Amino acid sequence: MLIIGHREVRDILKGREREIISLVADAYRLHDEGRSALPHSVFLRFPGDDRNRIIGLPAHLGGQEPVSGMKWIASFPGNVAQGKERASASIVLNSMADGTPEAFIEASLVSAKRTAASAAVAAGLLSTEREPSGISLIGLGPINLEVLRFAKAQLPSLLEVTLFDLDTERAHAFGSKVRKIIPGAAVHYAASAGEAVAAHRLVSLATTAGTPHLDLGAAGPGTTVLHVSLRDLTVESILGAQNVVDDADHVCRERTSLHLAEQATGGREFVDATIGGMLRAPDSFRRDPHRVAVFSPFGLGILDLALAQWVKQQAEEFSIGTKVDDFLPLDVVRSAA
Q: Are residues 86 and 203 in the same domain?
């Protein structure tokens, strides 16, 4: 068993945005080709507690280097007020030869970066501006910081950032981080979420909202909304937009905005395309420059596994991580050898 901790994962992933974006795009293509197995995520909730949860994402991704395993990610929003991270995660990778666990990886950064990379892929596909100059970020935690990092890698023209968070101190602290990612960036602070939506034609939502709270009436024609947190937008906003998802069966559940839209209409006709389908056949979807487009990614476990497998390969190549030779029963180790 190879154990790869947070600092080691951080060092492996640092500055590798373009490679991660490519890995995520390839995973989406394989999924669209039917070369994946993706059971529904398991949501572990607690009696009398409607905020905290732990989610299990089992998955298999085929291709030239098949990978199987599971991500186990906890979301405890109250951690933020205590100065701790909202989410914590780990991934186990299993051998495709005999099923034994091969690697245990601290996955908070894997999860954040694969989420941000998927948003960046969508931004590149859906943006109606040839060279977008600005992005609005609503909800200023680690996810939107990574979205900014990956969006800049995908869209180098980004030089202006508008920020909104319910905590103004948090917003200003975030502004200093923006300037490290985009030196010389023009940073603006919006007084409301609606003002942030109106500021640019590219918007990323990464909040901890559990119910819809935002409409897109302020969005200009051609705006692309990266609906990363999935529960921000009203049903009316979803129904009025062009909707792109990673997987309709996965995203239309657990009371996401799209799930509520499905319940309201009795169908999924409002879903216009999948991102994997767009990557495989760009002409299969026509982006209307006069309408808002919303990308709603449920966050597929195949993305975590694709990136975790790459982290494992890098760790093995450069002798990073801790090898535990007696993790498995001795007879299992001998048979595997």
A: no
Residue 321 has a pLDDT of 97
* Complete edge-to-edge strand list for the sheet that includes strand 186-189: 186-189, 160-164, 134-138, 202-205, 224-227, 293-296, 242-245, 271-274
Structure tokens at 303: 């993305």
Instruction: Tell me: do 195 and 76 sit in the same domain.
Output: no
Torsion of CA 318, 95, 39, 122, to 10 degrees: 20
Q: pLDDT per residue over 75-120, tens digit each?
A: 998 898 898 888 899 999 999 999 999 999 999 999 999 999 999 9
Residue 333 lies in a domain: no
Instruction: Residue count of the chain, please give it.
Output: 337
Q: Which two tokens stand for residue 262?
A: 């499905």
Pick from 104, 101, 48, 107: nearest CA to 74: 107
For residues 170 and 215, state if they share a domain.
Answer: yes
Residue 331 has pLDDT above 80, yes or no: no
Q: What is the total count of domains within the chain?
A: 2
Helix, coil or strand: residue 93: strand
Report angle CA 146, 194, 197 to the nearest 5 degrees. 45
- Determine which of 78-92, 228-242, 321-335 has the lowest per-residue pLDDT on average: 321-335
Terminal C-alpha separation, the chain: 13
| Reported pTM | 0.92
> Tokens representing 72?
């186990």
Mean confidence (pLDDT) of the chain: 95
